Amino acid sequence: MTRPISTLTCLALGVSLGGRPVLHGIDLSVQSGTVTAVLGPNGAGKSTLLNCLAGLMRPSSGAVRLDDSPLSVMPARARARRIAVMPQTPEIAWPVEARALVGLGRTPFIGARGLSAEDEAAVDRALAAAGAADLTHRSVDTLSGGERARVLIARALAGEPDWLLADEPMTGLDPAHQLDAVGLFRAMAEGGVGVIVTLHDLSLALRIADRIVVLADGAVIGDGPAATVLTPELIASAYGIRAEVRSGLGGPVIEVLGRL
Hints:
By secondary structure, the chain is an alpha/beta fold. Helix content is 32%, strand content 31%.
């Protein structure tokens, strides 16, 4: 079954925290079926933007819409069925089997009798897709950082959402599992899911993304196709570094040469 096209949009988005502006004047419209990478230096507002797009944070000004509906008026359960979120620093407060943690991704769908056969099948699919099926019965407090990252990806996938918003999802993954995650996110987009990820690795962004959005000081300073937006001039403006874009065996690579 083909997923209907969905659009996630923010208009004149502004956020202030503790009286300090974090985001201002953000206009962004993202269509499902694509991977969008949000880049920028520490403190640029990447996580705040993702939280607003997910409906987890109310903007100080402007609005976020999912298709024709403002996120601010959508019931939390309805929103959670459509948008899955992978936070940068997820809290896992108790030792629980990986499968049970992944099952929490079905929470918006669970009825009074708990997980149904359909829910269990969705959990199995998510574990397999994230390469975490072998971790099913492991307690999450015994997992390495990379193993835990794979389980958390599976939890987000278990809800079979229209949108996946992931804050630094590659953290803790070794190079092989990073490539697996790239392939997974690309496959999700090709299946009609809208994927938005924040990243620090510029070369990885070129590998994974259709579109790159660059933030600096809470504003968008670059937005466009992944193959063209990351110029040396833009990288210098955003990060204060000298860099070159070079051709590599797996595609373009950003080589950092030093500080300005």
